[in-house]
């Protein structure tokens, strides 16, 4: 049994608890939180909940620690900190900062003799794999990634970190005309602003400066500054009633030509009923891979691009060859 720990018990942490339960080769050992442990109610009441400061005391009791905090402020600190103590998996999704985050985690993991799988999920993650494979198979062409319509956990979390914001959700919406042009094989040159819209619904604290909040959102680098972004202020009740579900999805398209001059379009897509539930499923599969890599004596940081696909599966290699290949 692979002994799993969860650090952070928001939407992703809750999804991770349920995902572990679906995998018979895994067991959830503990949940760690920065909040008062008594305020956390796991779906399985027998799972111990501890303050995150106690995690280091369980280094010998956990095979892989799932880091379920946000990319804006949690993971940049927690990733390197825990990588020296545990095999870890996280979903760091600030694409522009992945190289520096990888280096920080890699250094800590190598020092501690551990394995850390970073930026796991569907994008970065499965979409990254698709982009890599499509580029390798169709080297002459262009990549296009569209997200949504759906709720972005990372972008929503970034808004909630703004002073004066009590609640928020952000929808990523593909620009339909851009999608049509790409699928037709036109190979257009598109900016980020031409491909997606960002639609934000925000609950502000009483007396908060809404104009300042909206300005900060629209000008946030790596999240909103490169997109046409709408900000709508709503009540707590409307947020709960109309924006509590967390669907998402999207598609990766590679359009290009082969040596004989023929045109080709490759596409990989996802339609997700729950973004955090699906992402947590990816994290758990990556935990299995991290466990196996660690057992082989490997150390340092990895991404989903670096790991052989069979490491994610609970099935033996011979079984995969017979059933999947």
Explain what this protein looks like in three dimensions.
The protein is an alpha/beta fold and 325 residues long. It has eleven helices and 14 strands. The chain has helices at residues 11-21, 74-83, 98-112, 126-137, 153-160, 176-183, 192-195, 210-218, 236-242, 275-295, 317-323, and strands at 2-7, 26-33, 49-51, 64-67, 87-90, 115-117, 141-147, 150-151, 165-174, 196-204, 228-233, 248-257, 263-272, 300-302. The strands form three sheets. Strands 3-2-1-4-5-6-14 form a seven-stranded parallel beta sheet, with helices on both faces. Helix 1 (11-21) packs across helix 10 (275-295) and helix 2 packs parallel to helix 3. The two termini are 27 Å apart.
Q: Which residue ranges are poorly predicted, with pLDDT under 50 across at least 5 consecutive positions? A: none
Report the β-strand fraction as a percent range: 25-35%
Helix % is 25-40%
- The helix/strand class is alpha/beta
Helix tally equals: 11
The separation of the N and C termini measures: 27 Å
Overall form:
globular
Computed CA radius of gyration, to the nearest angstrom: 21 Å
Question: Biggest sheet, open or closed, and with what strands and sense?
Answer: 7 strands, parallel
Biggest sheet strand order reads 3-2-1-4-5-6-14
Instruction: Let me know the average pLDDT.
Output: 96
Query: What is the tally of beta strands?
Result: 14
Q: What is the H-and-E element order?
A: EHEEEHEHEHEEHEHHEHEHEEHEH
